[in-house]
Amino acid sequence: MAISRWDPFRELAELQEEIDRVLGSTFPRRGKETGTGSWLPPVDVKEEEDEFVLFIDLPGVDEKEVEITVVGDQLTIKGERKAPQEGERFLRQERVFGPFSRSFLLRVPVEVDKVAATYKNGVLEVHLPKSAAAKPRKVNIQVE
């Protein structure tokens, strides 16, 4: 069992990110009538025995515009959805363009060198293998 130091600001940061995600989808932050501004893509996080897997919805985002970093116990995914060409006129524009950034604090150490990502049909899938120290192991009981 790994012992980690409690950081009250970590919980506040996670709460702020969740509030931003919920309110951002209800009241998107936009620039002047262009649909530009920061936005938060929705993310599903799944924990398996050997790894964490994240699914990030990034429709319309070029994979070259996405950056994934793992520093210490924090995973950050950031990038940008480019706005349409200047001068295009829309009758209605609901999609938000501009930069995004999502950070996740990892509860257990991961094998940074083995982190892998794939991008298909607008969904980024990130695999974070748990380090051997974080994996559960069975302890044999010896009888004397």
Task: Describe the fold and architecture.
13% of the residues lie in helices and 32% in strands. It has one helix and seven strands. It has a single domain, classed as Sandwich (Immunoglobulin-like), CATH 2.60.40.790. Mean pLDDT is 83; it is low at 28-34. The longest helix has 19 residues, at 8-26. It has 144 residues and is of the alpha+beta class. The strands form two sheets. It has a four-stranded antiparallel sheet with strand order 1-2-7-6, with no helix packed on it. The protein has a three-stranded antiparallel sheet with strand order 3-4-5.
Short summary:
It contains one helix and seven strands, in the order H-E-E-E-E-E-E-E.
Order of helices and strands: HEEEEEEE
Beta content comes to 25-35%
Number of helices: 1
| Silhouette | elongated
Give helix % range.
10-25%
How many E-type strands? 7
CATH class annotation: Mainly Beta
* Total individual domains: 1
Q: Can you tell me the CATH topology?
A: Immunoglobulin-like
Indicate the radius of gyration in whole angstroms: 19 Å
Mean pLDDT: 83
Which regions contain 5 or more consecutive residues with pLDDT less than 50?
Answer: 28-34
| Alpha-beta classification | alpha+beta
Order of strands, main sheet, comes to 1-2-7-6
**Distance between the terminal alpha carbons, to the nearest Å?**
26 Å
Largest sheet: 4 strands, antiparallel
CATH architecture: Sandwich
